[in-house]
Amino acid sequence: MSNILIVGAAGRMGKWFFEYFINLRNEQSEDQYLSKKTIKVEKIFLVDFNRIEYFNKSEPSNVYASKNITKFIEDSNIIILCTPINETLKIFDKYATKLKPGTVTIEISSVKNPIYKHVSNISKNYGYLKILCIHPMFGPGAQVSSSKNIIMHVPISLSSSSRESKILSKLFPKFKRILIDTPEKHDTLVAILVSLIYFINLVFSKLLIEISAKKTLKNEKDLLKLLKQLSGSSYRIQSLLSESILTDDPPLFLNLFLGSDKSIDIIKKYGKIYEKVAMKVEQRDEKYLQNLVVNTKKVIKNQIDIDNSYDLLYQFLNN
Fold first, then answer.
1. Is the pLDDT of residue 196 over 90?
2. What is the tens place of the pLDDT at every residue in 106-115?
3. Residue 191 contacts residue 266 (beta carbons within 8 Å)
4. What is the b/e burial string over 125-153, where b = at least 16 CB atoms within 10 angstroms of the residue's CB?
5. What fold is seen in the domain 2-181?
6. Alpha carbons 168 and 3: distance in angstroms, whole number
7. Predicted pLDDT of residue 164
8. How far apart are the C-alpha atoms of 107 and 255, rounded to whole Å?
9. Residue spans per domain, the chain
10. Where are the strands (E) in 29-187, listed by range?
């Protein structure tokens, strides 16, 4: 039987983990086989300085909330840190000696390099602790029981990767777990998969705001709604993505853009390519632009079935 402590429980990912473990506990009570192959959840502790809104609404049994981490930390077997990197580091420094042997502490930061060395040193100094570095590759809107959820796992050391993977398999048996062997590789992948996408879509939204203020369109009421009414598939997908990204809090944007040198490098590279292509458009260089499209398509087709991607796009839009 394990007690789960979620720190940063008032946040959106904190709420997601709460719902996940409540759901897992309910499933375990109904499925003996699942109960045997997963870490059995008993109590769930919620900690945050802010009010945990959803706790008052549901109040299931064996769930307890507090603003003080010390109230629960000694009784916790598994700790999930849904906190900013600086806060996560402070928690490790302040409470590592207060954790009982065998406690599993999981940090979920989207950028690993700034935290990895610090966490590795703590793991070496306090060998009785089990510290896991993971990155859920989904947002708080993801279904808690979806088998499509992906977790990236950066082991504290390659020698401990097997033991850490076994813990994750018992915590998240339905999810796909992908081991990334170094924090540098993780941050490079995240720079492409997340940071760049957030950057592109933030700029896209800013562009729409500026265009709506132009003389030609400034008298058009609710321009964004009009664009949706007029749009085909490309704009609909793009606008959905850019709008949904804006539901995240500013600290996440700052962390993605500034928290990793890899992200800064990737965004700069994107900027250089954009500037060159924009210049060719301004110059009306048809030959360059045609070659760009043909060569880009050729390289991508070597790895991806782009016709299938097109079909999947319309399947998504038509559902």
1. yes
2. 999 988 988 9
3. yes
4. ebeebbbbbbbbbbebebeeeeeebebbb
5. Rossmann fold (3.40.50)
6. 16
7. 92
8. 15
9. 2-181, 185-284
10. 41-47, 63-66, 78-81, 104-107, 130-136, 150-154, 176-179
